[in-house]
Protein backbone atom coordinates (compact mmCIF):
# COMPACT_ATOMS: atom_id res chain seq x y z
CA UNK A 1 0.00 0.00 0.00
CA UNK A 2 1.41 3.37 -1.04
CA UNK A 3 1.24 5.93 1.75
CA UNK A 4 -0.21 9.35 1.10
CA UNK A 5 1.87 12.48 1.29
CA UNK A 6 1.06 16.15 1.75
CA UNK A 7 1.46 18.66 -1.04
CA UNK A 8 4.95 20.02 -1.69
CA UNK A 9 5.75 23.71 -1.65
CA UNK A 10 6.06 23.69 -5.44
CA UNK A 11 2.64 22.09 -5.83
CA UNK A 12 1.05 24.59 -3.44
CA UNK A 13 2.73 27.51 -5.19
CA UNK A 14 1.45 26.25 -8.55
CA UNK A 15 -2.12 26.08 -7.25
CA UNK A 16 -2.12 29.60 -5.83
CA UNK A 17 -0.45 31.10 -8.90
CA UNK A 18 -3.00 29.27 -11.06
CA UNK A 19 -5.79 30.79 -8.95
CA UNK A 20 -4.41 34.34 -9.27
CA UNK A 21 -3.84 34.10 -13.01
CA UNK A 22 -7.17 32.42 -13.79
CA UNK A 23 -9.06 35.00 -11.71
CA UNK A 24 -7.27 37.88 -13.41
CA UNK A 25 -7.82 36.55 -16.92
CA UNK A 26 -11.46 35.57 -16.33
CA UNK A 27 -12.50 38.84 -14.70
CA UNK A 28 -10.37 41.39 -16.51
CA UNK A 29 -10.05 39.84 -19.97
CA UNK A 30 -13.29 37.92 -20.44
CA UNK A 31 -15.50 39.91 -18.06
CA UNK A 32 -16.56 36.77 -16.19
CA UNK A 33 -17.22 36.12 -12.52
CA UNK A 34 -14.87 34.44 -10.00
CA UNK A 35 -16.96 31.26 -9.86
CA UNK A 36 -15.41 29.30 -12.73
CA UNK A 37 -11.71 30.06 -12.00
CA UNK A 38 -12.29 29.16 -8.34
CA UNK A 39 -13.95 25.91 -9.35
CA UNK A 40 -11.15 25.11 -11.82
CA UNK A 41 -8.52 25.76 -9.15
CA UNK A 42 -10.37 23.54 -6.68
CA UNK A 43 -10.27 20.76 -9.30
CA UNK A 44 -6.53 21.30 -9.81
CA UNK A 45 -5.89 21.24 -6.05
CA UNK A 46 -8.00 18.12 -5.58
CA UNK A 47 -6.23 16.40 -8.48
CA UNK A 48 -2.86 17.10 -6.86
CA UNK A 49 -4.18 15.56 -3.65
CA UNK A 50 -5.20 12.43 -5.53
CA UNK A 51 -1.82 12.25 -7.28
CA UNK A 52 -0.25 12.38 -3.80
CA UNK A 53 -2.29 9.27 -2.89
CA UNK A 54 -4.73 11.13 -0.65
CA UNK A 55 -8.02 9.20 -0.52
CA UNK A 56 -10.99 11.06 -1.94
CA UNK A 57 -12.84 10.52 1.33
CA UNK A 58 -10.17 12.59 3.10
CA UNK A 59 -10.45 15.39 0.53
CA UNK A 60 -14.22 15.35 0.85
CA UNK A 61 -13.86 15.48 4.63
CA UNK A 62 -11.87 18.70 4.23
CA UNK A 63 -14.66 20.20 2.14
CA UNK A 64 -17.27 19.09 4.67
CA UNK A 65 -15.29 20.61 7.54
CA UNK A 66 -15.01 23.93 5.69
CA UNK A 67 -18.77 23.97 5.17
CA UNK A 68 -19.35 23.14 8.83
CA UNK A 69 -17.28 26.10 10.00
CA UNK A 70 -18.87 28.55 7.56
CA UNK A 71 -22.48 27.34 7.58
CA UNK A 72 -23.64 29.93 10.15
CA UNK A 73 -22.25 32.69 7.91
CA UNK A 74 -24.21 31.35 4.92
CA UNK A 75 -27.42 31.24 6.97
CA UNK A 76 -26.80 34.78 8.24
CA UNK A 77 -26.18 36.01 4.69
CA UNK A 78 -29.45 34.45 3.52
CA UNK A 79 -31.42 36.10 6.33
CA UNK A 80 -29.79 39.48 5.69
CA UNK A 81 -31.14 39.27 2.14
CA UNK A 82 -34.62 39.01 3.64
CA UNK A 83 -33.85 41.84 6.09
CA UNK A 84 -32.88 44.18 3.25
CA UNK A 85 -36.06 43.35 1.34
CA UNK A 86 -38.41 43.85 4.28
CA UNK A 87 -36.58 46.93 5.57
CA UNK A 88 -37.04 48.65 2.21
CA UNK A 89 -40.65 47.48 1.91
CA UNK A 90 -41.28 48.68 5.46
CA UNK A 91 -39.88 52.13 4.70
CA UNK A 92 -37.03 51.73 7.20
CA UNK A 93 -34.19 52.12 4.71
CA UNK A 94 -36.02 54.95 2.86
CA UNK A 95 -36.53 56.71 6.22
CA UNK A 96 -32.85 56.36 7.11
CA UNK A 97 -31.89 57.78 3.72
CA UNK A 98 -34.48 60.58 4.00
CA UNK A 99 -33.36 61.74 7.43
CA UNK A 100 -29.72 61.13 6.57
CA UNK A 101 -29.97 63.55 3.65
CA UNK A 102 -31.26 66.18 6.05
CA UNK A 103 -28.80 65.58 8.88
CA UNK A 104 -25.48 64.52 7.33
CA UNK A 105 -23.46 67.31 5.77
CA UNK A 106 -21.87 66.48 2.40
CA UNK A 107 -18.78 68.32 3.65
CA UNK A 108 -18.14 65.55 6.20
CA UNK A 109 -20.08 62.66 4.69
CA UNK A 110 -17.32 60.04 4.50
CA UNK A 111 -16.07 60.77 8.03
CA UNK A 112 -19.65 60.70 9.33
CA UNK A 113 -20.36 57.40 7.57
CA UNK A 114 -17.27 55.78 9.06
CA UNK A 115 -18.11 57.03 12.57
CA UNK A 116 -21.76 55.96 12.38
CA UNK A 117 -20.88 52.45 11.23
CA UNK A 118 -18.19 52.24 13.91
CA UNK A 119 -20.68 52.98 16.68
CA UNK A 120 -23.30 50.57 15.33
CA UNK A 121 -20.81 47.76 14.76
CA UNK A 122 -19.15 48.28 18.13
CA UNK A 123 -22.58 48.04 19.75
CA UNK A 124 -23.70 44.98 17.82
CA UNK A 125 -20.42 43.15 17.22
CA UNK A 126 -21.44 42.42 13.64
CA UNK A 127 -19.92 44.03 10.56
CA UNK A 128 -22.33 42.19 8.26
CA UNK A 129 -25.44 43.35 10.11
CA UNK A 130 -24.09 46.90 10.15
CA UNK A 131 -23.35 46.88 6.43
CA UNK A 132 -26.68 45.25 5.56
CA UNK A 133 -28.74 47.85 7.42
CA UNK A 134 -27.09 51.19 8.28
CA UNK A 135 -24.43 50.73 5.60
CA UNK A 136 -27.03 50.17 2.91
CA UNK A 137 -28.86 53.34 3.99
CA UNK A 138 -25.62 55.33 3.91
CA UNK A 139 -25.00 54.14 0.35
CA UNK A 140 -28.36 55.68 -0.48
CA UNK A 141 -27.49 58.92 1.29
CA UNK A 142 -24.17 59.00 -0.56
CA UNK A 143 -25.93 58.53 -3.88
CA UNK A 144 -28.23 61.43 -3.05
CA UNK A 145 -25.22 63.57 -2.22
CA UNK A 146 -23.54 62.47 -5.46
CA UNK A 147 -20.62 60.83 -3.66
CA UNK A 148 -18.39 58.28 -5.34
CA UNK A 149 -20.02 54.95 -4.31
CA UNK A 150 -16.63 53.25 -3.98
CA UNK A 151 -15.55 55.89 -1.44
CA UNK A 152 -18.81 55.51 0.47
CA UNK A 153 -18.39 51.74 0.53
CA UNK A 154 -14.82 52.16 1.80
CA UNK A 155 -16.00 54.39 4.66
CA UNK A 156 -18.84 52.01 5.55
CA UNK A 157 -16.55 48.97 5.52
CA UNK A 158 -13.83 50.71 7.52
CA UNK A 159 -16.30 51.70 10.22
CA UNK A 160 -18.10 48.37 10.26
CA UNK A 161 -14.90 46.35 10.66
CA UNK A 162 -13.53 48.73 13.30
CA UNK A 163 -16.44 47.85 15.57
CA UNK A 164 -16.36 44.19 14.59
CA UNK A 165 -12.69 44.00 15.55
CA UNK A 166 -13.06 45.58 19.00
CA UNK A 167 -16.53 44.53 20.14
CA UNK A 168 -16.62 41.75 22.78
CA UNK A 169 -19.83 40.61 21.07
CA UNK A 170 -18.00 39.85 17.81
CA UNK A 171 -17.35 36.22 16.87
CA UNK A 172 -13.91 37.00 15.43
CA UNK A 173 -12.94 39.00 18.51
CA UNK A 174 -13.67 35.89 20.56
CA UNK A 175 -12.18 33.42 18.08
CA UNK A 176 -8.74 35.06 17.77
CA UNK A 177 -7.81 34.90 21.49
CA UNK A 178 -9.27 31.40 21.70
CA UNK A 179 -6.88 30.25 18.97
CA UNK A 180 -3.90 32.12 20.44
CA UNK A 181 -4.48 31.22 24.08
CA UNK A 182 -5.10 34.74 25.38
CA UNK A 183 -8.06 36.20 27.25
CA UNK A 184 -10.81 38.22 25.59
CA UNK A 185 -10.44 41.58 27.30
CA UNK A 186 -6.64 41.53 27.43
CA UNK A 187 -6.81 40.81 23.69
CA UNK A 188 -9.13 43.77 23.08
CA UNK A 189 -6.96 46.09 25.18
CA UNK A 190 -3.81 44.99 23.35
CA UNK A 191 -5.44 45.64 19.97
CA UNK A 192 -5.91 49.31 20.82
CA UNK A 193 -2.21 49.96 20.10
CA UNK A 194 -2.69 49.10 16.43
CA UNK A 195 -6.40 49.82 16.00
CA UNK A 196 -6.57 53.41 17.27
CA UNK A 197 -3.69 54.76 15.12
CA UNK A 198 -5.08 52.95 12.07
CA UNK A 199 -8.53 54.36 12.73
CA UNK A 200 -7.31 57.95 13.02
CA UNK A 201 -5.28 57.57 9.82
CA UNK A 202 -8.44 56.34 8.09
CA UNK A 203 -10.53 59.22 9.44
CA UNK A 204 -7.88 61.71 8.32
CA UNK A 205 -7.89 60.25 4.81
CA UNK A 206 -11.69 60.31 4.64
CA UNK A 207 -11.64 63.92 5.84
CA UNK A 208 -9.15 64.74 3.08
CA UNK A 209 -11.50 63.17 0.51
CA UNK A 210 -14.42 65.11 1.98
CA UNK A 211 -12.50 68.37 1.78
CA UNK A 212 -11.43 67.63 -1.79
CA UNK A 213 -15.09 67.92 -2.78
CA UNK A 214 -15.43 64.30 -3.90
CA UNK A 215 -19.15 64.84 -3.72
CA UNK A 216 -20.78 67.85 -5.41
CA UNK A 217 -24.43 67.37 -4.67
CA UNK A 218 -26.80 70.00 -5.88
CA UNK A 219 -29.62 71.16 -3.63
CA UNK A 220 -32.05 70.26 -6.39
CA UNK A 221 -30.90 66.63 -6.60
CA UNK A 222 -31.04 66.14 -2.83
CA UNK A 223 -34.50 67.69 -2.70
CA UNK A 224 -35.65 65.57 -5.65
CA UNK A 225 -34.57 62.31 -3.98
CA UNK A 226 -36.16 63.35 -0.69
CA UNK A 227 -39.39 64.13 -2.51
CA UNK A 228 -39.39 60.75 -4.26
CA UNK A 229 -38.90 58.95 -0.94
CA UNK A 230 -41.61 60.91 0.89
CA UNK A 231 -44.02 60.47 -2.04
CA UNK A 232 -43.65 56.70 -2.32
CA UNK A 233 -43.24 55.87 1.37
CA UNK A 234 -44.83 56.94 4.62
CA UNK A 235 -41.74 58.45 6.25
CA UNK A 236 -42.07 58.60 10.02
CA UNK A 237 -39.59 58.97 12.91
CA UNK A 238 -41.26 55.88 14.39
CA UNK A 239 -39.54 53.80 11.73
CA UNK A 240 -36.20 54.67 13.32
CA UNK A 241 -37.23 52.58 16.32
CA UNK A 242 -36.55 49.43 14.28
CA UNK A 243 -32.76 50.05 14.00
CA UNK A 244 -32.75 51.00 17.70
CA UNK A 245 -34.52 47.77 18.62
CA UNK A 246 -32.08 45.87 16.43
CA UNK A 247 -29.12 47.28 18.33
CA UNK A 248 -30.86 46.57 21.63
CA UNK A 249 -31.47 42.92 20.75
CA UNK A 250 -27.86 42.34 19.83
CA UNK A 251 -26.78 44.34 22.86
CA UNK A 252 -28.69 41.85 25.00
CA UNK A 253 -26.75 39.11 23.22
CA UNK A 254 -29.62 37.66 21.28
CA UNK A 255 -27.92 35.08 19.00
CA UNK A 256 -27.28 36.33 15.48
CA UNK A 257 -29.59 34.03 13.51
CA UNK A 258 -32.78 34.36 15.63
CA UNK A 259 -31.98 38.04 16.14
CA UNK A 260 -31.82 38.69 12.40
CA UNK A 261 -35.05 36.74 11.85
CA UNK A 262 -36.70 39.04 14.38
CA UNK A 263 -35.22 42.05 12.57
CA UNK A 264 -36.67 40.84 9.26
CA UNK A 265 -40.06 40.39 10.94
CA UNK A 266 -39.88 43.95 12.28
CA UNK A 267 -39.42 45.12 8.70
CA UNK A 268 -42.42 43.04 7.63
CA UNK A 269 -44.57 44.50 10.40
CA UNK A 270 -43.48 48.02 9.39
CA UNK A 271 -44.53 47.31 5.80
CA UNK A 272 -47.98 46.21 6.96
CA UNK A 273 -48.55 49.00 9.49
CA UNK A 274 -46.82 52.01 7.94
CA UNK A 275 -46.73 51.37 4.19
CA UNK A 276 -50.13 49.78 3.67
CA UNK A 277 -48.60 46.61 2.28
CA UNK A 278 -50.19 43.18 2.32
CA UNK A 279 -48.78 39.80 3.32
CA UNK A 280 -48.20 38.78 -0.30
CA UNK A 281 -46.07 41.83 -1.11
CA UNK A 282 -44.06 41.39 2.08
CA UNK A 283 -43.32 37.74 1.26
CA UNK A 284 -42.22 38.74 -2.25
CA UNK A 285 -39.96 41.46 -0.85
CA UNK A 286 -38.35 38.99 1.58
CA UNK A 287 -37.85 36.36 -1.10
CA UNK A 288 -37.25 38.19 -4.38
CA UNK A 289 -36.47 41.67 -3.09
CA UNK A 290 -38.36 44.95 -3.12
CA UNK A 291 -39.49 46.34 -6.47
CA UNK A 292 -40.83 49.79 -7.32
CA UNK A 293 -40.95 52.19 -10.26
CA UNK A 294 -40.69 55.74 -8.90
CA UNK A 295 -39.79 57.39 -12.18
CA UNK A 296 -36.40 58.34 -10.71
CA UNK A 297 -33.49 56.23 -11.96
CA UNK A 298 -31.42 56.99 -8.87
CA UNK A 299 -34.19 56.08 -6.44
CA UNK A 300 -35.07 52.90 -8.32
CA UNK A 301 -31.45 51.79 -8.28
CA UNK A 302 -31.29 52.33 -4.52
CA UNK A 303 -34.61 50.69 -3.67
CA UNK A 304 -34.94 47.76 -6.07
CA UNK A 305 -32.83 45.27 -4.19
CA UNK A 306 -32.74 42.80 -1.33
CA UNK A 307 -34.45 39.45 -0.86
CA UNK A 308 -33.09 35.96 -0.31
CA UNK A 309 -32.92 35.41 -4.05
CA UNK A 310 -30.50 38.33 -4.46
CA UNK A 311 -27.98 36.51 -2.26
CA UNK A 312 -27.83 33.36 -4.38
CA UNK A 313 -25.01 34.66 -6.64
CA UNK A 314 -22.98 35.47 -3.56
CA UNK A 315 -23.80 32.22 -1.79
CA UNK A 316 -22.92 30.14 -4.86
CA UNK A 317 -19.54 31.88 -4.97
CA UNK A 318 -19.00 31.15 -1.29
CA UNK A 319 -19.93 27.48 -1.73
CA UNK A 320 -17.26 27.11 -4.43
CA UNK A 321 -14.75 29.07 -2.31
CA UNK A 322 -15.42 26.73 0.62
CA UNK A 323 -14.78 23.69 -1.57
CA UNK A 324 -11.44 25.21 -2.56
CA UNK A 325 -10.63 26.17 1.04
CA UNK A 326 -11.36 22.69 2.34
CA UNK A 327 -9.17 21.06 -0.31
CA UNK A 328 -6.11 23.31 0.08
CA UNK A 329 -6.28 23.00 3.86
CA UNK A 330 -6.73 19.22 3.89
CA UNK A 331 -3.99 18.57 1.34
CA UNK A 332 -1.53 20.62 3.41
CA UNK A 333 -1.02 23.38 0.84
CA UNK A 334 -1.61 26.22 3.29
CA UNK A 335 0.57 24.55 5.91
CA UNK A 336 3.57 24.01 3.63
CA UNK A 337 3.57 27.66 2.53
CA UNK A 338 3.18 28.84 6.14
CA UNK A 339 6.20 26.76 7.15
CA UNK A 340 8.30 28.43 4.49
CA UNK A 341 7.27 31.84 5.78
CA UNK A 342 7.95 30.85 9.40
CA UNK A 343 11.51 29.73 8.57
CA UNK A 344 12.37 33.39 7.94
CA UNK A 345 11.12 34.52 11.37
CA UNK A 346 14.30 34.81 13.47
CA UNK A 347 13.33 37.75 15.70
CA UNK A 348 10.19 38.81 17.56
CA UNK A 349 9.48 41.45 14.92
CA UNK A 350 9.92 39.02 12.06
CA UNK A 351 7.70 36.51 13.88
CA UNK A 352 4.90 39.09 14.07
CA UNK A 353 5.50 39.91 10.40
CA UNK A 354 5.45 36.19 9.52
CA UNK A 355 2.17 35.78 11.40
CA UNK A 356 0.53 38.65 9.54
CA UNK A 357 1.84 37.54 6.14
CA UNK A 358 0.72 33.96 6.79
CA UNK A 359 -2.72 35.08 7.94
CA UNK A 360 -3.12 37.33 4.91
CA UNK A 361 -1.97 34.51 2.66
CA UNK A 362 -4.48 32.15 4.29
CA UNK A 363 -7.20 34.75 3.75
CA UNK A 364 -6.45 34.94 0.04
CA UNK A 365 -5.79 31.21 -0.27
CA UNK A 366 -9.05 30.11 1.38
CA UNK A 367 -11.32 33.14 1.02
CA UNK A 368 -12.73 32.37 4.47
CA UNK A 369 -12.07 34.68 7.43
CA UNK A 370 -12.47 31.93 10.02
CA UNK A 371 -9.87 29.73 8.32
CA UNK A 372 -7.50 32.70 8.28
CA UNK A 373 -7.81 32.99 12.07
CA UNK A 374 -7.83 29.30 12.96
CA UNK A 375 -4.97 27.89 10.86
CA UNK A 376 -2.24 30.45 11.69
CA UNK A 377 -3.48 30.57 15.28
CA UNK A 378 -2.91 26.85 15.69
CA UNK A 379 0.37 26.92 13.80
CA UNK A 380 2.04 29.85 15.60
CA UNK A 381 0.74 29.34 19.13
CA UNK A 382 3.60 27.13 20.34
CA UNK A 383 6.20 29.33 18.62
CA UNK A 384 5.12 32.43 20.55
CA UNK A 385 5.18 30.46 23.79
CA UNK A 386 8.64 29.01 23.16
CA UNK A 387 10.01 32.48 22.40
CA UNK A 388 8.58 33.85 25.63
CA UNK A 389 6.02 36.09 23.96
CA UNK A 390 2.58 36.69 25.44
CA UNK A 391 -0.21 35.03 23.42
CA UNK A 392 -2.03 38.36 23.11
CA UNK A 393 0.69 39.40 20.65
CA UNK A 394 -0.41 36.52 18.45
CA UNK A 395 -4.13 37.16 18.84
CA UNK A 396 -3.64 40.83 17.91
CA UNK A 397 -1.67 39.92 14.79
CA UNK A 398 -4.39 37.45 13.81
CA UNK A 399 -7.12 40.07 13.98
CA UNK A 400 -5.03 42.81 12.35
CA UNK A 401 -4.60 40.64 9.28
CA UNK A 402 -7.36 38.03 9.53
CA UNK A 403 -10.46 40.02 10.39
CA UNK A 404 -9.51 43.19 8.55
CA UNK A 405 -8.06 41.76 5.35
CA UNK A 406 -11.08 39.50 4.71
CA UNK A 407 -13.10 42.27 2.94
CA UNK A 408 -10.16 42.80 0.57
CA UNK A 409 -10.44 39.28 -0.90
CA UNK A 410 -12.79 39.76 -3.89
CA UNK A 411 -13.87 36.10 -4.07
CA UNK A 412 -13.93 35.49 -0.31
CA UNK A 413 -17.03 35.23 1.86
CA UNK A 414 -16.73 38.82 3.12
CA UNK A 415 -15.86 40.35 -0.24
CA UNK A 416 -18.71 38.54 -1.98
CA UNK A 417 -21.18 39.57 0.72
CA UNK A 418 -20.13 43.22 0.65
CA UNK A 419 -20.38 43.37 -3.13
CA UNK A 420 -23.85 41.80 -3.02
CA UNK A 421 -25.19 44.24 -0.42
CA UNK A 422 -23.43 47.48 -1.34
CA UNK A 423 -23.51 46.96 -5.08
CA UNK A 424 -19.86 47.99 -5.45
CA UNK A 425 -17.13 45.73 -6.81
CA UNK A 426 -14.33 44.90 -4.35
CA UNK A 427 -11.86 46.08 -6.97
CA UNK A 428 -13.53 49.51 -6.70
CA UNK A 429 -13.88 49.83 -2.92
CA UNK A 430 -10.57 48.22 -1.84
CA UNK A 431 -8.46 51.39 -2.43
CA UNK A 432 -10.74 53.24 0.03
CA UNK A 433 -10.75 50.67 2.85
CA UNK A 434 -8.14 52.75 4.63
CA UNK A 435 -8.63 51.26 8.09
CA UNK A 436 -8.43 47.69 6.84
CA UNK A 437 -5.18 48.37 4.96
CA UNK A 438 -3.49 50.47 7.65
CA UNK A 439 -3.94 48.05 10.54
CA UNK A 440 -1.64 45.21 9.36
CA UNK A 441 0.99 47.74 8.26
CA UNK A 442 1.05 49.44 11.66
CA UNK A 443 1.07 46.03 13.36
CA UNK A 444 4.18 45.01 11.40
CA UNK A 445 5.92 48.32 12.16
CA UNK A 446 5.25 47.97 15.89
CA UNK A 447 6.51 44.40 15.75
CA UNK A 448 9.87 45.33 14.21
CA UNK A 449 10.21 48.34 16.54
CA UNK A 450 9.48 46.11 19.53
CA UNK A 451 6.84 48.53 20.80
CA UNK A 452 3.89 46.98 22.66
CA UNK A 453 5.30 43.46 22.07
CA UNK A 454 4.85 42.02 25.55
CA UNK A 455 6.67 38.99 26.99
CA UNK A 456 5.19 36.27 29.11
CA UNK A 457 5.26 37.21 32.78
CA UNK A 458 5.69 34.20 35.06
CA UNK A 459 3.09 32.30 33.09
CA UNK A 460 3.39 28.62 32.38
CA UNK A 461 4.08 28.01 28.73
CA UNK A 462 1.08 26.60 26.97
CA UNK A 463 1.46 23.77 24.53
CA UNK A 464 -0.03 24.43 21.15
CA UNK A 465 -3.02 22.34 20.27
CA UNK A 466 -4.58 21.11 17.06
CA UNK A 467 -3.29 19.11 14.11
CA UNK A 468 -1.49 22.01 12.47
CA UNK A 469 0.57 22.82 15.56
CA UNK A 470 1.32 19.14 16.17
CA UNK A 471 2.45 18.69 12.57
CA UNK A 472 4.64 21.74 12.85
CA UNK A 473 6.15 20.57 16.13
CA UNK A 474 7.21 17.29 14.49
CA UNK A 475 9.03 19.05 11.67
CA UNK A 476 10.42 22.05 13.52
CA UNK A 477 13.89 20.60 14.06
CA UNK A 478 14.13 19.70 10.39
CA UNK A 479 13.14 23.21 9.38
CA UNK A 480 15.90 24.72 11.48
CA UNK A 481 18.58 22.80 9.54
UniProtKB/TrEMBL annotation:
Membrane-spanning intervals of the chain: 12-30, 73-97, 109-138, 191-209, 221-242, 254-274, 308-328, 349-375, 427-453
Primary residence: membrane
GO terms of molecular function: antiporter activity
GO cellular component, one term: plasma membrane
Compartments in which it is found: Cell membrane
Alphabetical keyword list: Antiport, Cell membrane, Membrane, Transmembrane, Transmembrane helix, Transport
Na+/H+ antiporter NhaC-like C-terminal domain span: 159-451
Superkingdom of source: Bacteria
Entry annotated with the keyword Transferase: no
Annotated membrane topology: Multi-pass membrane protein
Similarity-based family: Belongs to the NhaC Na(+)/H(+) (TC 2.A.35) antiporter family.
Protein name as it appears in the record: Na+:H+ antiporter, NhaC family
Organism of this sequence: Desulforhopalus singaporensis
